[in-house]
Design brief:
alpha+beta; Translation Initiation Factor IF3; 4-stranded mixed β-sheet; 2 helices
Length: 106
Amino acid sequence: MVVVNTDYVTGQQLQTLTIVRGSVVMTKHIGSDIGASFQTLVGGEIRAYTDMLTQAREIATARMIEDAQRYGADAVVNVRYTTSSVMQGASEILAIGTAVKFIPQG
């Protein structure tokens, strides 16, 4: 599956199928929250949250690809990510794009 943030795939003509999405809501355990609270006192990267959001993006992307596969897509174009806070310590990551099929050249 080709996944790009452009509205084209080089060398391919595209037929638009539908919008596809994948999302996940994740939270860290209380130990990570306590560690993050201390980190805010001295500044710098809060690695536990960086890792959590990286993992969440990967899950959301995989779910978006699964959604595209249900439509028989060859690719997902115009991929975008968004995040929101659902509750304290929990974030939603949403991956959204346009599922497309390649039009045979000939």
